[in-house]
Amino acid sequence: MAIPSPSMDAWLKEAKADASAPKIGMYLTHNGVVRQTPKALVRQGDTSAQPVTGMRFSYDRDGVEAAIAETYRLPGVYYVRVWLNEGELQVGDDIMYVLLGGDIRPHVIDGLQFLVERIKSQCVQETELR
User: Fold this and answer.
1) φ, ψ for residue 30 (rounded to 5)?
2) DSSP letters of 15-73?
3) SS3 of 5, please?
4) Which pLDDT tens digit goes with each residue over 51-108?
5) Whose CA is closest to 84, among 76, 72, 94, 92?
6) How many CA atoms lie within 13 A of 21 on its CB side?
7) 9: helix, strand or coil
8) Is 124 helix (H, G, I), strand (E, B) or coil?
């Protein structure tokens, strides 16, 4: 069963009250969602892949913390917050939320791409259900 998703409005309010806020000119968010389209179709073009009905999702907490620490070392990144779901998820359920704040657009975009890629490639276990 999926755990309740956070409120992005609340997260942004907290971020703007954080000590880092005066350095930040942009916040970006990422909201990963369980989709019906299988990964094999989207990434490899496998048209024989069956539609997804859900997903088993788990993650390595220490790995996520390490990825966040690495992201803070990138130029211009001053605020990072991550939430990951766990368990058996249904199509449409939230998988993750990431909020990243930084000084200028290129640094924020690069930081968000870096962190989401690191989490997806090194910290999570996803099993599509059919």
Assistant:
1) -130, 135
2) HHHSTTGGG-SEEEEEEEE--SS-HHHHHH--TTPPPP-EEEEEE-HHHHHHHHHHHHT
3) coil
4) 999 999 999 999 999 999 999 999 999 999 999 999 999 999 999 999 999 999 999 9
5) 94
6) 9
7) helix
8) strand
